[in-house]
Amino acid sequence: MTQMASAKKGIITKEMQIVSEKENILAEEIMKGVASGVIAIPANVNHKSLSPEGIGSGLRTKINVNLGISGDKNDYEAEMEKVKLAIDFKCEAIMDLSNYGKTNTFRKKLIDMSPAMIGTVPMYDAVGYLEKDLLEITAKDFLKVVEAHAKEGVDFMTIHAGINKRAVECFKRSKRLTNIVSRGGSLLFAWMEMTGNENPFYEYYDDVLEILRKYDVTISLGDALRPGSIADSTDAGQISELIELGNLTKRAWDKDVQVMVEGPGHMALNEISANMTLQKKLCHNAPFYVLGPLVTDIAPGYDHITSAIGGAVAASSGADFLCYVTPAEHLRLPDINDVKEGIIASKIAAHAGDIAKGVKNARDIDNKMSDARRRVDWDEMFTYAIDREKAERYFNSAPPSEKHTCSMCGKMCAMRTTNMILEGKEVKFCSEK
After folding, report:
1. What confidence tens digit (pLDDT) does each residue in 281-309 have?
2. Is the dihedral of CA 421, 425, 430, 433 positive or negative?
3. What is the pLDDT of residues 307-347, one digit of tens each?
4. What is the set of domains in the chain, with CATH numbers?
5. Helix 336-356 vs helix 303-316: crossing angle, to nearest 10
6. Cα separation, 135 vs 269, whole angstroms
7. Which one, of 315, 321, 312, lies nearest residue 289 by Cα?
8. 386 burial class (0-12, 13-18, 19+ CB within 10 angstroms)?
9. What's the longest Cα–Cα distance across the chain?
């Protein structure tokens, strides 16, 4: 049985038990959340190295790392280094977005060694896997790729099933500034326009669900019409697709397939909270997976920051899963340094969101850090840092003359001064030996 089918029968699976221990929440509560669809535990039966994670209501906000090769950059060794980095930073999910050549060798290796959830977008892989041009691919061909990924052990798949003919008409009427920026969405739009056919993932949605149920793959309902600029956010195309995704969510749950719903990419800061509420309402509180949102369009090279700002607001307003964005976004395939910057920014956003929405024990590590700062215990502070290596490197690059200070304030350190006074000591600077 799938995780959802088990939960509906009152069965606590080993995956639910592991999530319970990680989240410090009763296993019965995890089970109830999975049964109702507000929690998803993506766990393909063929992903043997997986350390299960829960995504959804009341749980820590999780983050995803995108990687994979392209036609211009097809260095699998470099991508595997990014994988190792993501695992070292305990990222909960990795999406292989490879879109060039025969990608299954890399993907199988990734699944074999990764404790993180693995996600894919089968639409990206269709051309290379089938060795056909887009116009030559049939609806049934697309389903072959879905089954191939599922059989390999992929835990969740982005399926752009909501961009049907009705949603396309809304998109065309809206006259967007940036049109369609989803890669998978644009390919499906092109296929639909060239063939005159309905979106195959929508038309054959029940067949897709049968494949996913067989391997217990979570469907991540892709937002093909997500806004690619703040000018296009919350428009008719985006909302019409979201309404379709709400209907598709219930159809998946009826088949015992777990669901995540993907959310907007670019959005002004003041629209984020309302969009999170709208998504939860229209999609029946299914876990929400957001890319960003990026809150301004003018920061190429710094979009990990624009994304972290939007991601923190989104998480605090109910988003459950953040897709990282790197400084290379909109510019090139990210290198390993970009990946690290993206991971750190996303982890900061997720944690800030967890504190704001009161996730259980989220503040504990902050309190430990603050206590170590009061005592000016550098070694302990470094153990709580998201990026310990950078914190230590910065501190040691300009070491203070006295250990229990830093080179910013030296002996005038506020912590040192206050601690000395509270200990009954006299504070001296000029005459101190």
Report:
1. 999 999 999 999 999 999 999 999 999 99
2. negative
3. 999 999 999 999 999 999 999 999 999 999 999 999 999 99
4. 3-356 (3.20.20.540), 364-422 (no CATH)
5. 20
6. 39
7. 321
8. middle
9. 86
